[in-house]
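Q: Give me the 3D complex with NDP.
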Amino acid sequence: MRQISSEEVYAALPIGECIDVVEAVMIAVSRGEANLPLRWLMPIGAGNAMGLMPGGLADPPVHGIKIVSLYPDNPRRGLSSHQGVILLFDSRDGRPIAAVDGASVTAQRTAAASAAATRALARKDARVLAILGSGEQADHHLPAHLAVRPFDEVRVWTRTLAHGESFVARHATPGVALRLVASVEEAVRGADVVVTATASPTAILKGAWLEPGQHVNLVGASLASAREIDDQGVARGRYFVDTLAGAKTQAGEFIDALKAGAIGEAHILGEIGQVYDRTIPGRTGDSDITIYKSLGVAAQDLATAHEIFLRVQHAPR
Ligand code: NDP
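A: Here is the predicted complex, encoded as structure tokens.
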């Protein structure tokens, strides 16, 4: 069985190519070509948890599981908050074929999933990107978004000033005016695309600040108990999800807005793979507000890990 490190993950699959891999697997998911049991979470104590995300794909024929330790305070130790491993099996004979670093694949595939949604749903002339958060996900969402639209202005808002300053310093990019802003409202007003990539359990993004034509990727809240956008924000957007089953049980802002009566069950317009597959319309005009809710799907981990496996298996160690 091949062990694949984070360095190999990043070297083998550049973000631009990871976007295509993730888009393709989300089409397969929406066509029913993936087996995706709901993920399982076990509290470990002190706010930490272990997550198990099993799944299987028809093409490529692989199945496996991501086992991930969720340690929200890890960045203070200089570590990713998502420590883990993806165990990949060949579904033709059941052999384990690879153990792939889970932190790097999670970071890459999540940013790739958002960027694919931006490619499909954002206005073609989108130039201004707002990123809420400055952690590992924000780090990967910036280059992923630069791969799908020629953003020339990027605003970053984050809770801790020093983290925002460090983000701006490490992401200096020629041709991109990258600046730290003092409030979420300042980041969002006038932006074309908004990415929420924080660990906030409560809504930091208000629907009142959204403007016609914007596209929003909701990334940071992946539990039913968390949300980053308020009810009005959910209600104002054409709302797409990674999987219907996951969103109905685990998308905190959807569940809360439904309970509050701000939206109905039919507010979820469909899965993002159906938009990629053109079986449902995504953006219908320049004034739509579109929203992609990312919870994270084991199929994304498996497809990304398998593509990396194919690329590294003959490479020298
Ligand atoms: P990091 O720990 O690296 O970064 C966390 C970010 O959240 C920081 O920018 C931090 O701001 C901000 N933050 C934390 N608490 C709050 C709060 N109460 N209010 C506002 N901002 C806050 O985490 P990651 O970047 O790895 O992950 C970010 C989120 O994305 C997590 O919730 C994670 O579970 C989720 N995630 C979602 C995935 C998906 O598939 N949808 C996949 C992987 C992760 P600062 O540092 O400035 O204080």
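A quick observation: The pocket of NDP is lined by residues 75, 81-82, 106, 110, 133-138, 158-160, 163, 197-200, 204, 219-220, 222, 294-296 (CB under 6 Å).
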